[in-house]
Amino acid sequence: MKLPERVRIIDVGPRDGLQNEKQPVPTDVKLGLIHRLQGAGLKEIEVTSFVSPKWVPQMADNAQVMHGIERQAGVRYSVLTPNMKGFEAAVAAPREEWPDEIVVFGAASEAFSQRNINCSIAESIERFAPVVQAAREKGIQVRGAMSCTVGCPYEGEIAPERVGMLAKLMKGIGVQRVDVADTIGVGTPRKVQAALEATLAHFDVDHISGHFHDTYGQALANTLASLELGVWNFQSSSAGLGGCPYAKGATGNVATEDVVYLLQGMGIDTGIDLDKLIDAGAYISEALGRKPASRAATAILNKRIA
Ligand code: HMG
Ligand code: MG
Fold it and tell me: Number of structural domains, the chain?
């Protein structure tokens, strides 16, 4: 099977990676990570979220983060906006501080939708619709994250039909591309392919990305399974940071370093400098007082010392 020749990685570390940290991470450290990621060649970075600070205190400095980014031409900066309040906050700043893309985030599981954004799937779509419309009117791209597309911490296994239903609803309100997320990292390759295939019924392959958490160590296998279907956009976190506050026990996203190492080894172009990426992961890991969760980064850092 012919795999894609290039892959686009969206590093979600500054948002998905840091949102679960208990201690406040200083804004300057978040900016230090974002700047190192773009320096390493990342062309898409999910930088913060405009959600309720009562729900996710770590993202309360969203406006300061947007203000502090030294933007690099050709890089797309995205933020999560669950409702009009979040969207309005994201565009309250001068235009040069607006996000290039906003992300509305729904779930294929009713229970997760309730726990994460305090409403049903149907209600979430109603809330997202005006956000999508407002964003597109302002020329801001819109991505839709679809959580729990394989399994849910509250409902267990999720049937692909439910993923298809959510993708159809997202398409119906004008979402331009979607993430197929394995929020709790329970997916294995064929199940992930089934979720992707259900999504492919509504979005073309260029507008679908894989978002895999690595709780069960399956994320790289799931990445390869996605490549087999032609999917070439993936989300990951440098140093494997993260977890979702509303998905207990779920670990971080697959580490960007591990994905890049895999793809480079397969001759697939990512445009990313692995050494600089490892420096970015080492920087944030040191700031958080822990070792990078990336296996590839750990091996390469050990070699550097030896
Ligand atoms: P709610 O309580 O139903 O909202 O929360 P509400 O409209 O009833 O408002 C309640 C209070 O929140 C009010 O303040 C609002 O002003 C305020 P009060 O009057 O009590 O002082 N509020 C806001 N403040 C700031 N920004 C906003 C906002 N909206 C309302 N945007 C809401 C609904 C969605 C806001 C809430 O549930 C929330 O913030 N949830 C956050 C969920 C979250 O960030 N989860 C993690 C990200 S998703 C994820 O990680 C999964 C993903 O990675 C993919 C995957 O792996 O699956 C994307
Ligand atoms: Mg996630």
Answer: 1
Q: Which residue has the tokens 């440098």?
A: 238
Residue 178 in tokens: 């979607």
2 found inside a domain? no
Instruction: Please tell me whether the overall predicted TM-score, pTM, comes out greater than 0.85 for this model.
Output: yes
Cα separation of 34 and 196, whole Å?
29
Look at ligand 1, atom 8, and give the residue with the nearest C-alpha: 118
The verdict on residue 255 lying in a domain is: yes
CATH number of residue 15's parent domain: 3.20.20.70
Maximum CA pair distance of the chain?
Answer: 56
Residues in the ligand 1 pocket, defined by CB under 6 Å? 16, 19, 49-52, 55-56, 80, 82-83, 85-86, 89, 105, 116-118, 145, 147, 181, 183, 211, 213, 244-246
Residues of the chain where predicted confidence (pLDDT) is lower than 70:
243-244
Ligand nearest to the CA of 184: 1
Range of the domain at 226: 8-305
